[in-house]
Structures are given as structure tokens and as C-alpha cells.
Amino acid sequence: MNQPVDIAGGGVAGLALGLALRQAGVPVRVHEAGTYPRHRLCGEFLSGTGTEEFTALGLGDVLAECPELHDVVWFSGDRPILRRDLPVTARGISRWHLDALMAARLTAQGGDVRCGERISNPVTREGWVLATGRTRAEASPWFAQKEHYQNFEMHAGLEMHLGHGGYAGIAHLGNGTVNVCAMLPAAVGKSNAPALADRLRACGMTALAERLDAAQAVPASRCGVSHFLTGWQRPKDNTLRLGDHAAVIPPFTGHGMSMAILAALEASPHLTAWSRGTLPWNDAVQSIQSALRRKFRPRLRWAAWLHPFLLHPSGQRLLRLLTRSGLLPWHWLYQRVR
Fold this sequence. Notes:
FAD/NAD(P)-binding domain; four-stranded parallel sheet; 14 strands; alpha/beta; eight-stranded mixed sheet; globular
């Protein structure tokens, strides 16, 4: 009889792992502290995974309902500095819909999704996977916030806005809605003005702030987080961690939702072998950790270099120069972080 796998955290990583394991007939219990549907901090566009990965999770029909995003425009402050077609079509997808849909599919496939269950310390037990999101860091330079807007005119399928020490990304979600997600200096997050437009204005993104002022915000979609660091999360134990609980890639230079799905697909065969009694738990954990480091180490290394470069004024000046001269290796850089 197959042993069950318990997953703490019902975000994209946890639900994707549950769906992958159910495809292999493994009993799954997902313990989610919240309920569905819910808004989560996320760029809400899918880049780096596609039909093949969603089909492997039993979600092959989902992407057909998501708007295709074919191009991107970058701004430095208030000036457009780059416009390119995306090497691979991206998709806009709201976490409000995606998480609830994945949870429903997992339940329909025999998975046990338990909402309202916050797991405090499953780290010492075999068969447990932590997918509970970003680990808390007391000393963090970042604050992140997202909010949906309607009646907002996009200049491309994706917009990326560079400001003073922070940035914002905008993705078209369909039905007249866009998602605006910003990563800003921690001091901006502590300001007395919680409106996203005001925080963007404080980072020099004045034109974008004015566009948001003219659009219609969806207040229920607003959420933010602080006290987090990017890169590998450096666990102090041998716990099996997936998604942002394992590694957080800077969102301007990578894509966390794609990494969550790919990590789940990497982990599933090893956990299936453990469930069937053909692989010891410690060996399964070590195999998964090694596979994830091989898969994600290069993109995290590139992101760690590109991220501060793009936020520095001299980096933005060089970016403008390379773009004007036609020397920017756009496709090459895109592939490094995906």
C-alpha cells in the first residue's frame, strides 16, 4: 500500500505537487492555512512553462482560457527604453482563479485538500513537504505589493517599469483586468500611504502612478509582503522544501510560478518511489534537493547578478545605450533566467 505524502501549503507549488503525485496514484493530503479562492502576491503571468507541464498535471485545458502575452515594453522612470516580442508566448493568469481551480482538480482526483489547517512543525516527520511560501527574514531590503486594476490601457502584453531602487510589472489577465506587482525598497513599504500608486511615485515611476490613478483599483485584490530575501532560502535542516520556501527568484529577472510547477514535476517521481517503498526518505530528499539545485542554480545565479544591475542608475543607463545601439542580447538574457 502506498504511503501518503503530506504537503504543508496549498499554493502553486503545493497544489502542483499534489496533482503530479495523484497522476501516479500516490495518496496526498494538502494542509492549507487559508481558503480558496484568495489573492496572493504574484506577477500572475506564466513564463517558462506551458502546455506540456500543465498537461502532465491534468490541467491541459487551463491555458486555453488564459490571454496570450506576446510582447513586453520596459520603462526606466517615465521613458520607454525597450520593446520586444517575447521569445516564447506567456500567459496571464490570476491566482484568484488558478489556485481555486487547482485545488478543485486535486480534490476531484482523490486528493485531500484541508483548508484552515496551519501546520506549525512537520519538519521532523517522513512524508512531509514544506511549500508554505517565503521564509521570514528579519533584515530585508524589500517590500512587495500587488493589486488588480480595471480600465487600464496596456502598452504591451507585459510592462516592466524600473524606478529608484524598485520596479513594477504589469500583466494583462483578460476581462479588462490587469495585475500590477511591485518590488520596492522596504522604507517605501513603511510609508503612511498604502496606495500602490503613491508608493510607485515615491520610487520615480510617476507616469505609471498617474495611469493607475486614472484606472479603477480592485481593493480586495491588494496584498503585500515584507521580511523576505531572494535566492536560496538556506534551510537549517534537511526538510524537503518546494516553491518559494526553497528559493525565491527576483521577479524582474525570473519567474517564481514557473519554478514552482517545474519543482513539483521534478520532485514527484522521487516521492512516488518513497511512497511505494522503493526509496528511503532521506535518499528521496537528497535526490530532490540535488535535482532542484541542478535545474535552478544557473537561473538564480544570473538573476542575482542582473537584479541589482538593473536597479542601479548606471545599469539602467547602460541598458538604454545597448538598446539604442541594437547590442542588447535580449533572447540570450531571457533564456538565462528561464
